[in-house]
Amino acid sequence: MWTRRTFCTHMINAFGGVIAAQAVRPATRRQVSIGGRRVKTIDFHAHCEVPGVREIMGGKTGGGPLMIGRERLDQMDAQGIDIEVLSINPFWYATDREVSRNLIRTQNEKLAALCAANPDRFVGLATIALQHPDLAAEQLEEGIKKFGLRGVSIGTEVGNEQLSLPRFDPFWAKAEELDVPVFMHPQGVPELQSRLQGNGILTNVIGNPLATTIALSHLIFEGTLDRFPRLKICAAHGGGYLPSYADRSDHGCLTFPEQCNKKLNKKPTEYLKQIYVDSLVFSGEALRHLVAVCGIGQIVLGTDHPYPWTTTGVDHILGTPGLSDGDRTAILGGNAARLLRIQA
Length: 344
Known about the structure:
The structure is a single chain. The chain is α/β, with parallel strands linked by helices. The chain has a single domain (40-340), classed as Metal-dependent hydrolases (TIM Barrel, Alpha-Beta Barrel). It contains 13 helices and 12 strands. The chain has helices at residues 4-14, 18-23, 70-79, 97-117, 133-145, 169-178, 202-205, 207-221, 224-227, 247-255, 284-294, 313-318, 325-340, and strands spanning 33-34, 37-38, 42-47, 83-87, 122-126, 151-154, 157-158, 161-162, 181-184, 232-235, 276-278, 299-300. The strands form 3 sheets. The chain has an 8-stranded parallel beta sheet with strand order 3-4-5-6-9-10-11-12. Strands 1-2 form a two-stranded antiparallel ribbon.
């Protein structure tokens, strides 16, 4: 295990200036209170990139808002975000085994260094080469046990393969064994690219939630959640469309039993009570519905920062009618603190 001093030194080399920038920032941090008590807010859905990793594949680091520095910390302070859970969207699922091994080790080491240098503001989710499931299981264990990362981030598919395929079971088994959250983030539905062209960025607006809906549905109907019932999957963007029309999942096999060849341990909608989702659903009514379908203990704050989908994620939860003080505290940080083993 790396020491704090080693991490800080490494972090300065990899992310130059962040520690110094944090030290001289003005005291303008918004503090969130509920019922007169200060609560710790934890944003489960926040993105970053690690410099030098895309270069391993012959690419170039994107830079800009995905980098961590003074501007990002100022934005967190203004929004009332105490801790961000940093994840990296997979761009490496087509790389071969050896490139994947080098890329992931470098990425996880540097991400862990950043978080160790700013332990009160960031925790990190390990990345894995999911296209090589046995290697992914090893990388997950290394990320958690050696680098101190708190969970793992994955996409919703690998190429055209669904994550419910048996070949991915070594990864699911390791995630269940380690008892860590698996944050699932989509990257659209490439096979619908032509239909989603035109005005409105439909590849993202429709494609991203649809990809999550498909992935979660396969995990339910193909029995993955029966084989690994203790998995802690957290799905971005409110779980896609699945919670919005969940009851149809219960009626499909009743209506067309000849098209269903697997017996599940429970009704499809009941699996939503064991799936976590973030709060990025934009309206109080949508959040109220998520609570009704998934349960208050399954919802975490998510903003998609630094992508500017919302700057009012905290106020969205504070302002949703019908939530108790306990509900708001749970969504703003309590649920995430339990999942990630953060002291609330």
